Amino acid sequence: MENIICETDSAAEIPLGSLVAAEGRFSPYSRATNPGEFDAAVYYRTLEVGGKLRKAAILAQGEEYWHVREGLYRLKIYFKERIYRIFPEKEAAVMSALLLGDKSELDGDLKELYKRNGVLHILSISSLHITIIGMSIYRLLRRTGLPVWPCALAGSVILVLYGCMTGFSVSACRAIGMYLIKMGAEILGRTYDMLTALGVMGAFMAVQNPFYLQNSGFLLSFSSVLGIGVVYPLLMPQSSSGKGRESRLWGGKRSGTGAAEPVREFLSGAGRGLGNALQQSFYASLSITLATLPVQLRFYYEIPVYSVFLNLFIIPFLKPMMITGLLAMLVPGLGWMGLAGRLILGGYELLCGCFDRLPFHTWNPGCPRIWQILVYYLILGGAVSVKYFINQKVISGALKKAPSAGRAVAAALCLGVLLFEVRPPAENSVTFLDVGQGDGILVRTASGETYLFDCGSSSRSKIGRYVLIPYLKYSGIRTIDAVFLSHPDADHINGAVELFALGGENNITVKQLLLPDIEDGAKEEQLGGLLQAAWEAGQEESVAVGYLSAGDEWSCGSAAFTCLHPARGYEAGDVNAYSQCFLVEFYDEGEGSRETDWTLLLTGDVQEGGEKALLQEIADRDIRGITVLKAAHHGSRNSTPQALLDQLEPFLTVISSGRNNRYGHPHAELLERLEACGTHIVRTSLWGAVTVSCEDGSLELAAPYCFYAADGI
Fold first, then answer.
1. Which end of the chain is less packed: N or C, by CB atoms within 10 Å?
2. Of the candidates 406, 368, 410, 369, which has an alpha carbon nearest to the alpha carbon of residue 389?
3. Alpha helix positions (H), 549-636
4. Are 177 and 159 in contact (CB under 8 A)?
């Protein structure tokens, strides 16, 4: 049975576990229709949630409910209110996430800062919580002389209740389950093996909910523990174990004399201890990074380069922050202990801000392919096995040192990491993103250039943040050579404006913005907002701005571009009429020849007088036999007239529009015209994002996120 989230304006409190009758408008969570886009349907499926009931009205409510879980929920609310009395609002939201698993009020900018720097893990209920709470209770009770089983039972019950109160996240479920296995081993007098416990919990959770295997939190949680349990013990240098140092420092024969010698010896020991702790923290952080790298790239397409070093400062202070935060939250009169948490969180934010400004902050190779992940783990497994063999030989005395083998292991690990930089050869392609009611077109050439033609939507919010930037990261695109905005309607520009604002912090650079060369008097009035967005772009170098008009041409190694509309100084009475239109000719370079392989015509929202001018320009240039045509104005009734279709004879026509949009696009009359002319029709509203390319003279379409189309080409 699937759960349903109900949105209601009812002020009545409904205890957990109550049986209710409700009515409203049900809607399933949307699937991702673009590469890189967050898939809400898959995410909520892992939470066993099937959809949302909007504007729900509660018709009836039963009297029975879950008394224990309702009590835990009210206790959580009490603790949350206490946290907000102790801490300032922003810090209170972080502590509420850290201690209670409530991330609903986190500051968005702070969350993005943590995410960009690879320290978002501090906001999750994890093994550290379980160690502090469960093991503290168990050891404290054992010191009173109680037998093992009541101590283990008490800690286990409290942890299970804590898990229920905080929502039993994936990492909490894994950590609490492993704790229960450990306590079982204590009661039975058996040896606890962390990797065995990890495997048992992984199998149990996957059988219970197979969709966990698609959940980034599940995979990151388990791979992190594998990094600590498998990679770290073998990666950590044998000489850094610290064994015997205490005896040499404190029990061995002192050298030197004088009153200052004990102080000097103490400082030396403290320095060595700190150095050893830092080294251990570094190798632990590196081990987790190596173990989780493919998972991070598969789901997030990038990794913070300096996160290994930043965590050296983050992790040591996490435990004292949690302990003081728990005491301040649980014990009346100890609210003053929250000062430690405020200072630590302030330091975290300062450190993340400093690391955020370092060059080469983020490595973005894009989404890895399955073969890259498999080969990487084979290399990592081989390196770990070799290191294990070397360590065994050193321990047994067969080897004193094996520096060459150690360097070989390091080289193999570097090779495995660099494997993710291997990308398929660049090709001429065009991707029509599914932005809803709007346009978003990305052209990539075989010679390496990337151009964005429009990006905006009137039916989906924040299209730049949630569609365009994730797609660029997914594809490993770090530079856009030029952005062309056909006209200043929101459904063509708002995503690009977001890109200007957010590109810098997302490691994406835009080199140039090119606008229609309309009459001078209207440029500032109609295009001024776009100019301002380009000037204020959040990247190191400013975005150059230029204007294009009919007849302007440029070419790169494998494609030629021609602006067909508008004419220079075009009267700007109707913004749709002066939409930029481009002819793109892709070349198949071989045997020293340069022949046109296929062509693309982009038409923006051109209509009426502008469409007539475009048709005249096409006729004057005798442009015929277009391979791919982007239908104008999202498939409106009067756009893309019969005369244009007769002249162009397009093989494939792409219509970019939103599903069930209020304009009725694409209009039935246009679809009839397109079908009559014999062109193949592709609609982003049915196919999702569509990528068109050409291989050996054959046109290829890729729509990997197509969930709606009933029939294809």
1. N
2. 406
3. 609-620
4. no
Q: Which residue has the tokens 């103490």?
A: 266
122 φ/ψ angles, rounded to the nearest 5 degrees: -70, -15
Q: 593-602 and 628-630: which strand pairing?
A: parallel
DSSP state of 669: H
Nearest to 637, CA basis, from 669, 610, 663: 669
Per DSSP (E only), the strands in 29-158 are 49-61
Distance, CA of 78 to CA of 71 (rounded, Å): 11
The CA dihedral of 329, 333, 337, 338, to the nearest 10 degrees, is 50
- Assess contact for 297 and 367: CB atoms under 8 A: yes
Bridge partners (DSSP) listed for residue 628: 600, 652
Q: Assess contact for 337 and 328: CB atoms under 8 A.
A: yes
Q: Tell which residue, 500, 682, 471, 484, has the closest CA to residue 580.
A: 484
Tell which residue, 68, 78, 74, 120, has the closest CA to residue 97: 120
- Joined tokens for residue 654: 């792409």
Number of residues that make up the chain: 713
Q: How confident is the prediction for the chain on average, in pLDDT? A: 88
The pLDDT value recorded for residue 253 is 45
CB atoms within 10 A of CB 514: 20
Per-residue tokens: 344: 């630590």
Residue 447 φ then ψ, to 5°:
-90, 5
Residue 441, both tokens: 């077109």
Q: Is 707 a residue whose pLDDT tops 70?
A: no
d(CA 680, CA 653): 6
Cβ proximity of 356 and 116 under 8 Å: yes
Closest CA to 130 of 199, 214, 225: 225
Whether the Cβ atoms of residue 665 and residue 635 lie closer than 8 Å to each other: yes
Residue 696 tokens read as: 């050996």
What is the widest separation between alpha-carbon atoms in the chain?
Answer: 102
Check residue 292 and give its pLDDT.
Answer: 94
Q: Please check whether residue 632 is in contact with residue 606, taking contact to mean a CB–CB distance below 8 angstroms.
A: yes
Q: What is the DSSP string of 326-343?
A: HHHHHSTT-GGGHHHHHH
pTM: 0.88
Which is it for the CA torsion 314, 315, 321, 326, positive or negative? positive
Beta bridge partners of 20: 61
Pairwise CA distance, residues 205 & 198, whole Å: 11
pLDDT of residue 243: 44
DSSP 341-352: HHHHHHHHHHHH
End-to-end CA distance of the chain: 37
β partners of residue 54: 25
Find how far residue 17's CA is from the centre of its chain: 34
Residue 337: partners with Cβ closer than 8 Å, 6 or more residues away: 324, 325, 327, 328
Burial-class residue 702 by CB neighbours within 10 Å (0-12, 13-18, 19+).
middle
In angstroms, rounded to a whole number, what is the distance separating the alpha carbons of residues 256 and 251?
15
Is residue 51 within 8 A of residue 26, CB to CB? The reply is yes
DSSP 484: E
pLDDT in tens, 181-204: 999 999 999 999 999 999 999 999
Cα separation, 30 vs 460, in Å, equals 12
* Amino acid type, 619: A
Q: Is the pLDDT of residue 328 over 80?
A: yes
Residue for token digits 């570094």? 282
For residues 585 and 557, the answer to whether their CB atoms sit within 8 Å is no
